[in-house]
Structures are given as structure tokens and as C-alpha cells.
UniProtKB/TrEMBL annotation:
Residues 45-135 form the Methyltransferase domain. It comes from Catellatospora citrea. SUPFAM superfamilies: S-adenosyl-L-methionine-dependent methyltransferases (SSF53335). Gene3D superfamilies: Vaccinia Virus protein VP39. InterPro entries: Methyltransf_25, SAM-dependent_MTases_sf. This is Methyltransferase domain-containing protein.
Length: 265
């Protein structure tokens, strides 16, 4: 893991990032998709890049056997303290897991920070190796346009340094925060939606679906007010289910979820 990425996560943002606002919407939508995609359990789930266990904890509480692999020792310590969750330090490109040993593999982070395509394919292929025939690989990626949308929504785009960072991400997909400004994301790769089916195929997996996670609602200024109301939140979730698979809207979402299956034996 690159030094600046490690420093970014050592600040502890993953302990609370998904608790409110856009982060809370990301969690609710991801959890909603997980619940509709996973087969009946109990399942053996490998959560690669699972950080502090924000999804591993609820999955274990639902009766699944969940093991987190993450490059950050701090994240591993937090995840392993959750009931029913085990965790170890590891690398998505070289998993210390037997072949065909898990029902489901989650990649909810590794593909964000592997800026070289060969490394991203290595992570996909390791997930494909570890998952059982018929099993699922669920991968989260960041949209190519996330910095542009977020920058204008939060007023960062007026800063010349941010504008240069944004232009670089739009042109190449590689997002770099050279000055390590705390409010800006660290080194990452932002996918075009049409890259995902190609990566899935090159990993030897079969694409089942791509879905927008937040959709365009992450840009709504009064999103915290919506999420503070159970009925409005439920309505927002229902509406997003109706449009999550519309390719024309994928670029407006901060994250996409790709669902792939290992076929054969």
C-alpha cells in the first residue's frame, strides 16, 4: 500500500465515514443491494478490504461466517473485535486463502486504490480463485466523475489544486492528492462503467449485473434530512431500486456495485 494511502486511513475516517450524510446513504444502498443479491445462508464470506468491518459486522449478525482481509493493522484490530468476525492483514492481489473456499467474496475497497490495471486484474483474479463455483464476487468501484460532481457540490472545484486533480482523474482515471489535503480523497482509480465488464471477463467471471449505489441522490443538499426520516428514507431506497440498473445514470453515482459469478467447476 502506498504511503499516502496508509496515512489517509490512519486518520481513522473509516470508523465513522458511513455514519451520516453521503456516507450513510452509501451504506444503506450497499446493504440494500447485498440483501437482494446474496443467496440464502449461512454463507462463508471473505470481505477483502473490509476495513473496520462495517459490512462484516451486520453480515455476521445475520448468521454468515465472515473473514476480513485488510492491509491496515488498525482496521484488522477493529474488525476482529466484532462478534462473529475474524480478520487478518493481507493483500487483495495475493490472498492467503485456499482455492474455491468461499461462497462470496466482497471487494469493497481494493479496486479503489489499485491504480495499475494489472493490479486490479490481480485482485479480481484472486477473488475468482477463492470463490466456489457458482459463488459470487461483489465489487465496489468509484465512478470516473466522482471528483467532478463532489468538487462542485462542495465548492472545492474553485481551488486550482483541486481543479488540476479533477482534470487528471477525468483524463486518466487516476486521482492523486499530491498535497494530502485532509478533506480530499487519497490516491485512487476511478472507473468508467464500461471498464467493469471487461475486467470481470478477464478474471474468468461471468457478469450478472452492475448497479449504481448512491445514484444522483448523493448530490442532494438536504440528504441528511431525508435520512433522518424513516418514511422518506424508505421512499428514497425504493426509487433508487427502480433506476439502479439504468446505464445512463451510472456516471452520476459516486460508486457502482458489480456482481459477478464464478461458473464451471
Amino acid at each position: 500500500m502506498q504511503t499516502e494511502i496508509r496515512r489517509y486511513y490512519q486518520r481513522g475516517g473509516e470508523t465513522s465515514r458511513l455514519d451520516a450524510g453521503n456516507g450513510r446513504w452509501e451504506f444503506l444502498r450497499t446493504w440494500d443491494l447485498i440483501g437482494r443479491v446474496l443467496p440464502p445462508g449461512p454463507l462463508s464470506i471473505l470481505d477483502v478490504g473490509g476495513a473496520t468491518g462495517v459490512y462484516a459486522g451486520p453480515l455476521a449478525a445475520a448468521g454468515h461466517a465472515v473473514h476480513v482481509v485488510d492491509p491496515m493493522p488498525e482496521h484488522v484490530a477493529a474488525a476482529s473485535a466484532l462478534p462473529g468476525v475474524t480478520a487478518a492483514v493481507g493483500d487483495a492481489r495475493r490472498l492467503a486463502e485456499p482455492d474455491a473456499s468461499r461462497d462470496v467474496v466482497l471487494l469493497f475497497g481494493p479496486l479503489y486504490h489499485l491504480v495499475d490495471r494489472a493490479d486490479r486484474l490481480a485482485a479480481w483474479r484472486e477473488a475468482a480463485r477463492v470463490v466456489r463455483p457458482g459463488g459470487l464476487v461483489l465489487a465496489a468501484t468509484i465512478s470516473r466523475y466522482a471528483t467532478l460532481v463532489d468538487g462542485y457540490a462542495k465548492g472545492f472545484a474553485d481551488d486550482p489544486a483541486f481543479a488540476r486533480m479533477m482534470d487528471g482523474a477525468l483524463a486518466t482515471g487516476v486521482h492523486r492528492n499530491p498535497d494530502e489535503v485532509p478533506n480530499w480523497f487519497t490516491t485512487a482509480y476511478f472507473h468508467q462503467p464500461d471498464e467493469l465488464p471487461v475486467e470481470v471477463a478477464e478474471a474468468g467471471l461471468e457478469l450478472e449485473r452492475i448497479a449504481a449505489i448512491e445514484g444522483p441522490l448523493w448530490t442532494v443538499r438536504h440528504l441528511p434530512e431525508i435520512l433522518a426520516d424513516e418514511q422518506r428514507t424508505a421512499r428514497a431506497l425504493t426509487l433508487m431500486r427502480e433506476v439502479e440498473g439504468v446505464p445512463h445514470l451510472w456516471g452520476a453515482s459516486s460508486h457502482l456495485l458489480t456482481v459477478a459469478r464464478r461458473t464451471g467447476s
